[in-house]
Amino acid sequence: QHSEQALIAARQAGDDRLAVQVRATLGQAKAAAAQYGPALTLLDEAIAIKRAHRSGAGQAVGLAYSLATKGSVLGDRGQFTAALACFDEALEVVQGARHEVHASIHGLRAAVLLWQGRWEAARQSATDAFRIGEQVRSLFTLSMGRAAAAYARWMLDPQPKALQDLQHSTDWLPPRGITLFRSLNHGWLADGFASCGHHREARAHAAQALRRWREQDLIGGAMACRAMARVQAQEGDPARAERWLARAREIAACRESAHEQAVNTLCEAEIALDQQLDARAAALLDAALREFAAMGMSWHQERASRLLQRL
User: Fold this and answer.
1) Closest CA to 180 of 3, 23, 28, 13
2) pLDDT at 81 > cutoff 70
3) Degrees (nearest 5) of the Cα angle 264, 129, 187?
4) Which residue in 7, 176, 196, 219 is a FRET match for 246, CA 20 to 30 A apart?
């Protein structure tokens, strides 16, 4: 809302340069709220103008962050190759001395790599994010990078220390009123706690992720809903499990998130398999395999293939 008011004011003042900056900021805000169509229009316009007027002297911080934001949007849509190309260009235009934007680029890149299931690459990017965040004294990028690295470690080797680090990193933000992308942290925690049978903790973080959903922070909601679907299935309540899956599908549709839709299908197949609904599980796994192959989600593809072999 503030960005839209600022854009009107910049136009009334005839300040074209400021209008470009505000359009980029508005695109970034819409991207964070998962309003991807308008976000990409605004970001592409700002990126084109910033590229055209780039002198080559100094670091193009605004261009870099716009490119990184576009990369996160493309990644959520499952366009991983194009997304990673945006991050590469973003890092190229801010070569040299460390700047807070370096941490933001690596942090967003880590989130996209986590969506694709490239855990080790995500861990490396997230580690770069929190180390740079520490150097430039940015609590947000430090804590988010540390949290993403912890979740990647959990997926590589599910040890309690990884979940503890993820919880600690998340706990740094609320006392300071920092809420941007916090649903991601709660989604990661809900998933981790559900996987190790800590249902009470999983429920608490799923509730936090849904609370952020009401504030238009959708980014971790589908993962939290899948975690609760697994919890309800394990507790013998398939009706509630289906309701949680329906919520996960709703959030994925709102975000136009191809990777979330595919992982929702995999989760539904896993629950069907546990309920010995073999025909349904097979159909769902076939669908998920095609989607994972198309997006280069190799880890998920291998998991679906192993489950299919159990039938």
Assistant:
1) 28
2) yes
3) 25
4) 196
